[in-house]
Amino acid sequence: MLNELFILTKIKEGDIKAFEEVFRRYYSSLCWYAAGITGEMEAAEEIVEELFYVFWKDREHLQIFQSVKSYLYTAVRNEALQYCQHKEVKERYREYVLAGNVLEQSSDPHRLLEYEELQRLIRHTLDKLPVRRLQIFQMHRMEGKKYAEIASSLSLSIKTVEAEMTKALRTLRNEIDNYILTK
């Protein structure tokens, strides 16, 4: 425990070697642990990489009251469970849409017209996005690719992909909010 306290103190002070030691010690086993929960090694690796990124980025503010190992495993478990819940919600919605329930629920021509109008608004908004932002949005939302996959295939950093997705979603949200306010 004293050794972990020493390593944690070094990490908080910005010692990259101490961080790398923790990373090497736990990365592989955390990935296998997360894969056991998610059933997907790729998702598990993304979860663990994001955890270590946040761990390093917020190192000065870390409040760890148990061992570093316990902290990391608990954080990975929570993120993996959240990933599974999100995946389940997305899958249920996907099945709902594929079953045609969105349009079947309403035989009201007015609602169908609003739905079609909203679809046009979304297409029009996406068409106005810069090429790279649109490409990233389509790869993530339409093709289901992870940020790491997109970053790798487009030779970008994961943070650039995240930033572009945030901007694309903000643009869509603003256009939809404006549409709703004018209705």
TrEMBL record:
InterPro entries, sorted: RNA_pol_sigma-70-like (IPR039425), RNA_pol_sigma-70_dom (IPR014284), RNA_pol_sigma70_bacteroid (IPR014327), RNA_pol_sigma70_r2 (IPR007627), RNA_pol_sigma70_r4_t2 (IPR013249), RNA_pol_sigma_r2 (IPR013325), RNA_pol_sigma_r3/r4-like (IPR013324), WH-like_DNA-bd_sf (IPR036388)
Iron in keyword set: no
Record family assignment: Belongs to the sigma-70 factor family. ECF subfamily.
Protein name according to UniProt: RNA polymerase sigma-70 factor
Coiled-coil stretches: none
Pfam families, A to Z: Sigma70_r2, Sigma70_r4_2
GO biological process: DNA-templated transcription initiation
